[in-house]
Amino acid sequence: MAESIAFDGIDITQLYSTIVKQGVSKSEASVIVGSWIFENLGRTKRVFNFAEPFPETEPACTPAPFAREFEHPDWVDGENVVQAGQTPGEIGFNERFHQIERDLDRLGGGLGQVFTCMAEMRASLHALLGEIRTEINRLNADVYEAGHTSGGGATVEKIPSHAGLLDFGKYTGTTQFFDKKVSVWQTDSGTLLLPTLDTVGIDVLVGPKVQGAANLDRYIVETEDVRKRFPEEVSSDDLVKEFGDEILTDGRSVRDVVNVLPAGSKYKNLDALVEDVSEREASQVRTSVGADVAVTAALGIDSGVTEIGTADVNRLESIPTRARAALIRGGVTDLQTLANTPSDKVSEILKTEGVSASAGDAASWTRYAGTLMRLRTGIG
Fold this sequence. Notes:
Helices cover 47% and strands 8% of the residues. By secondary structure, it is mostly helical. A hairpin with a 2-residue loop joins strand 4 (180-187) and strand 5 (190-195).
C-alpha cells in the first residue's frame, strides 16, 4: 500500500481501521473515508495509478510450440502400395488422416486460445480507459471550479432531480482506493466511492481459469520423471522446485498452475495435489460475480438445475469432436459420467471406437470434467 495520508493530525489508515472496528463493512468504510478525503483534500496533489492490472506479458496467452505431426513422403507410381491399415514400413491412410485430424485439433485449440486472450485483453483495456476517463473528469472539474470560484451561470439538470427529492449522481468511472478498485460517483452531497465487482464471462469453459488441473494431470501422466520422483508423498514446493519451469500444453508453466496452492502444501500423492488444484481453480471462478449464470449458459442447462453433472458432453468443445462422439457412443453422455470414469476406461472406450487418443488426453479430459463439476457451489 502507498504511504498513508494524514490531514489535520488524522491518519487516514487509522481512521479506516477505526470505522471497520465499529462494525461497519469494509465497502461502507471505504465510501465514508473516501467522501471525507474528497471533502477535505480535494485540492491536494494527486498521483494517478491504474487499478486494473495490465501486465506486459500473460503466460496463459503464450501459445504452445506447434509441431506438425503429419508428414507425407512422396509416393512412386507402381512401387508404393496404397492401403488403409498399418503394416511394417507403411502407416496407411487411416493413420495419415488421423494425424491431420490431430494437427487441426491443436491448431483449432490454439486459435481458440488467441480469441479468448483477445477478449480478455479488450475487457482489460475497457477498464483502463474507464480509469483514464475518471481522472480526466476529475481534472476537468478542478479546472472548471478554478475558473468559476466567484460563481457562474445557472446549472442545467441533465437528469431531473424531481425538485431535489432524488439525487441520481453521476458515474465518472473507476479508480483505486486502499489498493481496491472503486467506482466514483459525483453527487450533490459530494463524491462517493463504491466497490466494483469482478465478473466472469461465458467463455469460462474454454478459458485457462479452469484448465490448469487438466493440463497438469496430462503433464504428469506423460512425464515419467515426475512420477518416478514423487511416487507417494509430494509437496507443492518440491514439485515447483524440480519441475516448475516445465511448460504445459496451454503455454503456462507448472509453477503458474501450482501457485494456486498455499505454499508448503503437502499431499499423499500427485493425484491428491492435482485434485486440490482443481478445487481451488473452480472456487476462484465459482466465487466470481455472475459465475452461476455464465456456467449455466455455457453448459446449456437451466439456471434452476442444481445438478451440473447433467450437462451434455457435447458442450465440452475443448475435447475433439470425434472423441466426444466416441464417448457418447460408449455411454459417457454427460459431465458427471465423464468426471467419474477412470482415465484408463476412457482410453479403452476411445480405442474401441477407433479414435486415437493418448493416456494424457484421457487424463486431462476426465480432470477437466471434474473441475467443471465444482463450478457450482455444493456440486462435485
